[in-house]
Amino acid sequence: MNADRRSIAYAHFHHVNEEVYRQIFDSLADITPVVQALPTDAALLDLTGALGYFHATPASLALLLQVKVMARFGITATVGIAENRLLATLAAQTTAPGSIQVLSADPQQITAFLDPLPVQALPDIGPKTAKALARYGLHTIADLRPVPLTTLQRITTATTGRLLAERAAGTDPRTVQPQGPPTTLSTSRAFPRDTLNPTAARSALLSIALELGARLRHTAQVTGRLELEVRMADRSSTTRARTLREATDHTAALQHTITDLYDTLALQRARLRSVTVRAQQLRPVQDSSFQLTFDRRTELRRRLDPLLDRANDRFGPDALHFAALLSDPRRHRNAA
């Protein structure tokens, strides 16, 4: 292996919760100290130094990772390996779950791998950018590559155009930054099948807000920042985040911010696979304060939170629901 060539691995851990994810992340230090958390189910590893230390190949280290994670946690890992972060990520995302895909460093083979992929496969390319590119007949990375940089910048923006040109060529200067998972609480909802139904999406967001609020209050914490990630049927994802004016554990405030973040995506006809919300900048509730209001509805909903918590603690998590989450009208007698 060329000493100047890096070997980067992207590992995706299937069906993992936050607590297990943190344990998995800690165990990755046995393979390499250069690990970057990608909460809540992935990590980047720079294997360059580990190859010489273990006298191993990238594929054998990936297999070691898979065996360790399965043996200790019962979790399946999919691993992609390449010479940079972009290619390693795409390698993992385009192979079968539980597999290992190692991309050659040969430029012709990299081009052959990238060409058939849709432009949405590139990180940070959301539905809006993909739609703008599609208007000019740019559907795949093969379509994108020969387009002059100035043309891409006119279609999108100066920054996005430059990013598209670099990534269509398989170039990614970013390095793996050693950092552990931040202190967050995350909640996800995966749809039974990919959906276009806006009502289903909003019900999922309400369900997330209810769960997240209850978890914050049970751990005596408030959040100062919310991040919403929406994953589409084509495996692309888009993320929006917002810092709150005041840290909160109030379900209604969480729901309002989450819904507003979702509306800013303007997804329209995008087919959704899952939504995830991460509560960040956590701190103890005793270190926070909230603004008093004369809005009777807001105050009543604030008082409702502990009542719901007590009812669900005593009678089970399904004791009370918001009516919007109930598909069967006969169950509305338990609706809040």
Automatic annotation (TrEMBL):
<dbReference type="InterPro" id="IPR001126">
    <property type="entry name" value="UmuC"/>
</dbReference>
<dbReference type="InterPro" id="IPR017961">
    <property type="entry name" value="DNA_pol_Y-fam_little_finger"/>
</dbReference>
<keyword id="KW-0227">DNA damage</keyword>
<feature type="domain" description="UmuC">
    <location>
        <begin position="19"/>
        <end position="126"/>
    </location>
</feature>
<comment type="function">
    <text>Poorly processive, error-prone DNA polymerase involved in untargeted mutagenesis. Copies undamaged DNA at stalled replication forks, which arise in vivo from mismatched or misaligned primer ends. These misaligned primers can be extended by PolIV. Exhibits no 3'-5' exonuclease (proofreading) activity. May be involved in translesional synthesis, in conjunction with the beta clamp from PolIII.</text>
</comment>
<dbReference type="InterPro" id="IPR043502">
    <property type="entry name" value="DNA/RNA_pol_sf"/>
</dbReference>
<comment type="similarity">
    <text>Belongs to the DNA polymerase type-Y family.</text>
</comment>
<dbReference type="InterPro" id="IPR043128">
    <property type="entry name" value="Rev_trsase/Diguanyl_cyclase"/>
</dbReference>
<dbReference type="Pfam" id="PF11799">
    <property type="entry name" value="IMS_C"/>
</dbReference>
<protein>
    <recommendedName>
        <fullName>UmuC domain-containing protein</fullName>
    </recommendedName>
</protein>
<dbReference type="InterPro" id="IPR036775">
    <property type="entry name" value="DNA_pol_Y-fam_lit_finger_sf"/>
</dbReference>
<feature type="region of interest" description="Disordered">
    <location>
        <begin position="169"/>
        <end position="193"/>
    </location>
</feature>
<dbReference type="Pfam" id="PF00817">
    <property type="entry name" value="IMS"/>
</dbReference>
<feature type="compositionally biased region" description="Polar residues">
    <location>
        <begin position="174"/>
        <end position="189"/>
    </location>
</feature>
<dbReference type="InterPro" id="IPR050356">
    <property type="entry name" value="SulA_CellDiv_inhibitor"/>
</dbReference>
